[in-house]
Design goal:
The chain has 3 helices and 15 strands. It has a single domain, classed as Leucine-rich repeat, LRR (right-handed beta-alpha superhelix) (Alpha-Beta Horseshoe). It has helices spanning 150-156, 180-184, 203-206, and strands at 18-20, 43-45, 53-54, 67-69, 78-79, 94-96, 114-116, 139-141, 164-166, 190-192, 199-201, 215-217, 222-225, 239-241, 246-247. A 10-stranded parallel beta sheet has the order 1-2-4-6-7-8-9-10-12-14, with no helix packed on it. Helices cover 6% and strands 17% of the residues. By secondary structure, the chain is mostly beta strands.
């Protein structure tokens, strides 16, 4: 589609439920407001489409939306200064805002099952109050979140439904801050902690994992210890990555 905008005739498709404009090139143009007039939309994918500027809060009018993907536009300045409009979409279950600039978006968002915020320029959150409603969340991707701290890990430990958690590339170097969170998540089955330069004995992480754990990636860290000491506690683990550590 080159640098052209979305044809405004799209608004005439009043009964449209599925719209995928991903992998196009809109050369930094704004997300068209008229998409918000497609009131029957259940699926909207604008990922990797080269959109830029402010995400129109009018998208909150899409009350039937289940799936929203705005991620992957890292070469443009796609941003959201406020996420309150998401609370107007009660049916929303899956949101991807990877690479979106959310540095000013500190408001709470609606209850979700899947949330991807990879390289999303998230703000520093000093308050123990979670910026997300974690009641129903099953899959959470906070990879490359440079402001991740013990406060956030503390409220993550209350995400009781969480099955998949990605905290890779987050500069987590303190193993003590990780000891409580995985252990408190009784339903957690997949955890990605690669590229964090975590230092300390590996058994201090392994010993806190649920016995139902399936997938663990600890590669590219600075973990130490004898692998033989942790094998007895791995339970039904199906995938284990320990490469590029200081193990023996």
């Amino acid at each position: 589609m080159g640098a052209s905008n979305v044809n405004p005739a799209l608004r005439d498709l009043k009964h449209l439920k599925y719209l995928d404009l991903s992998m196009n090139n809109f050369s930094g143009s704004h997300v068209p407001h008229m998409i918000a007039s497609l009131m029957h939309l259940e699926y909207l994918n604008l990922s990797n489409a080269g959109f830029g500027g402010l995400i129109p809060p009018q998208l909150g009018n899409l009350s039937n939306l289940h799936f929203l993907d705005l991620g992957g536009c890292g070469f443009t300045d796609l941003r959201a200064d406020d996420l309150d409009w998401l609370s107007g979409i009660p049916s929303l279950k899956h949101v991807d805002m990877s690479f979106v600039n959310l540095s000013k978006a500190t408001n709470s968002i609606s209850s979700l099952e899947v949330l991807h915020l990879r390289w999303a320029s998230l703000p520093y959150i000093p308050s123990p109050r979670s910026p997300f409603n974690l009641t129903s969340i099953v899959k959470l991707d906070l990879s490359s979140y440079s402001n991740l701290n013990t406060t956030i890990l503390r409220w993550l430990s209350h995400a009781s439904s969480l099955v998949y958690l990605d905290l890779s590339h987050c500069s987590l170097v303190n193993i003590e801050s990780l000891q409580v969170t995985p252990g408190a998540l009784s339903n957690l089955k997949e955890l990605d902690l690669q590229y964090n330069d975590i230092k300390g004995a590996i058994f201090r992480i392994i010993m806190n994992l649920s016995r139902t754990f399936k997938h663990l990636d600890l590669s590219w860290n600075s973990l130490s210890g004898d692998i033989a000491q942790i094998l007895w506690s791995l339970g039904p683990l199906e995938y284990l990555a320990l490469d590029f550590n200081d193990l023996k």
